[in-house]
Amino acid sequence: MNDNNRMVSVAVFPTAAEASIAQGMLANNGIESFIDNSTSSSVYPIAFGSLGFGSVNLVVASPDAERAKQLLGAHDD
């Protein structure tokens, strides 16, 4: 697999709403990102979905990972 096509988790959030805020900030800085909460929601869809437990990963393409982490760190996300 080409490293440019590899997706990397750059942050973990307790809720999808918090991940969405960070995703918007990255988008405003030209970085495309995706929210991945597939693990927790597929294992325990009712508990995680309705109670907000679990973790939500914000992922970006590998070449954008370092810049994304810097931006998130600068905004305490």
Shape: globular
CATH topological fold name = Alpha-Beta Plaits
Structurally, the number of domains stands at: 1
> Major β-sheet, in short?
3 strands, antiparallel
Named at the architecture level, the CATH assignment is: 2-Layer Sandwich
- Distance separating the two termini: 29 Å
- Cα radius of gyration in angstroms: 13 Å
Strand arrangement within the widest β-sheet reads 1-3-2
* Helix content, binned percent: 40-55%
The CATH class, by name, is: Alpha Beta
Our count of helices gives 4
* Number of E-state strands: 3
- Determine the mean pLDDT: 82
Beta-strand content estimate: 15-25%
The SSE order reads EHEHHEH
Broad structural category: alpha+beta
Low-pLDDT parts are 40-51
Please write out the topology:
Layout: E1 7-13, H1 16-28, E2 33-36, H2 38-43, H3 45-51, E3 56-61, H4 65-74
Antiparallel strand pairs: 1-3, 2-3
In short:
The chain has 77 residues and is of the alpha+beta class. Helices cover 47% and strands 22% of the residues.
Verbal overview:
The protein is α+β, with helices and mostly antiparallel strands and 77 residues long. It has 4 helices and 3 strands; from the N terminus they run βαβααβα. The chain has a 3-stranded antiparallel beta sheet. It is globular. The N and C termini lie far apart (29 Å). The model is unreliable at 40-51 (pLDDT under 50).
